[in-house]
Design a protein that fits this description.
single chain, 413 residues, alpha/beta, Rossmann fold, Conserved hypothetical protein from pyrococcus furiosus pfu- 392566-001, ParB domain, Conserved hypothetical protein from pyrococcus furiosus pfu- 392566-001, domain 2, 3 domains, 6-stranded antiparallel sheet, 5-stranded parallel sheet, elongated
Amino acid sequence: MTLVYTTGVFDILHPGHISTLKRAREYGDKLIVGVQDDESVEKQKGRRPTLTCKERMMMLEELPFVDSCISYFNIDQREMMEKIRPNVFVQTEEWTVQTDRSVIIDYLNQKKIKLILLPIQKNISSTQIKQRIIENSKVFRNDIEFLYSALQIVPIEELLVYENYDPQRARRLYDKISNEKLFLNPITVAVSEGVKIVIDGANRLEALKEMGARYALVRLVDYNDEEQVSLNSNAHFLNYHPDLLFSQAKESGFGLVKLSGAGSASDSNNFPIIICVNNEDYYGVIDHLNRKGPVKYLNDFVDLYLGKCEIYRLSELSQDKRWFPIKVIFKKLIKREIVDLAKQGELLNSGITWHKTTREIVRFCLPLEYLLVEEVLEDKKKKLLREIESKLTNKDIRYYPSNIYFCDEWGKK
């Protein structure tokens, strides 16, 4: 029996893989495929495969011309070949130029293992398939029309809010905007049931109001479209002593229940607020005073520490502050509750909720006078269109089909 052995990652199986494996099988009576495991791929390429080693092996084993699969970690195949003892070793022609193969080639000659190099099928690879997915995705499409439809100038009086602004942050923004004479980053506004709700940018909106502006630069999203915007639970990381917070909670009518485990999903449904102490002990918060509605409950608890300590939000990469002694985890609200709060004029404290959108527009600068000067709204909209067209013409707008860590240096010298 002639035993054929070949190896690879085989992440996202494609026609090039199929062709190579079929031809490899033709060189013997049995084909064994070595599949590089996840840890080895990550060590070699700096990232893990899209599919796990187990998933990749399951797919390959379903092919009629593959007799069996084995996983390997060590890319030096001599160890595997000592176990398998193949008669033929098959690779694609690029195998010899990827790195120095002199040692393994000497080994093959010594063991009289025949080396077969097959031509690769061009214009197809796992990497190219991943790029196609990104380019064809309607969420991550480079769509210029999105800029024209999403960016708008709207009267401030049309905007509803559901959360309080942060006075310190609003003041800093006021100073920056006033000094630079530019409004940077549009306010994110969700449209639902005929109303416009600010879901990100309450501090920027407050800064504009203090300047006497009647208009705001906004980015509109469809609140009912989960692919555009999602509502997530948020958390506060506090540089605060746990005993002090517990004492204040007791005085204000809040009780704490020790939870087993690490604050499971079922616990989060039973308790609107969960406290984690020293990244270890979890407590559910009970409101003994039965405050009316979730807004009063959540706000009163946040007021226990608001302005008394450093607060970092999970939504602002504050997981890096996990060494802080206290983490306050809020129950995930639903969009219906947000719409009702906005319509009723009830305000949550800042940072209790967290909206994420799939497409962002950042650092879009608009002259402040556009928002301050009194003129017909249609004229303002025409000016905004000219600004967009000018930025596109000058290539001042760049599209990134990926997650971005954008470090804002605006205002720094």
